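Message: I would value a second opinion on how I read folds in token form. Give me a protein, with the fold worked out from its sequence. Write it directly below this note and I will take it from there.
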Amino acid sequence: MEKDEQYRDHLLIRSAAELYAIGADRRDKALWRQVLAEDCVIEGLGFAVEGREANLHSIDALGRMFRATVHRVHQVVATIDGDRAMGETYSTADHLLKEKDELLVWSIRYQDEWRREAAGWQFARRRLIVDWEETRAVARVGAA
């Protein structure tokens, strides 16, 4: 693979991670449809959800559990082999709790597998690892 092509693929993989984060925060299923493979699996401690359509319900769950969320993508490291890639995405996620003015903050590592599809690079598998969490008071909650 040429350097320019590899660089482009890394940018597209990072873009998939960023669109996933934006989709979660905006509760935008169309964004997730762009970046989740039809047979994707998203898993974490105590859960595994298989298939794109089943995973879209996670967006509904975010809306039921939190007033708002902000996901930040920090670094994405990927090893690309043809139309497949494996790697890790570091992220921080702020979750504004429903019942009180507090943030639940997660330090996240996703262990990712991507696949190049006709629509671009998509997640074939994401494994959510929360390295730690903390709760912070929110001094002021503005209108969304």
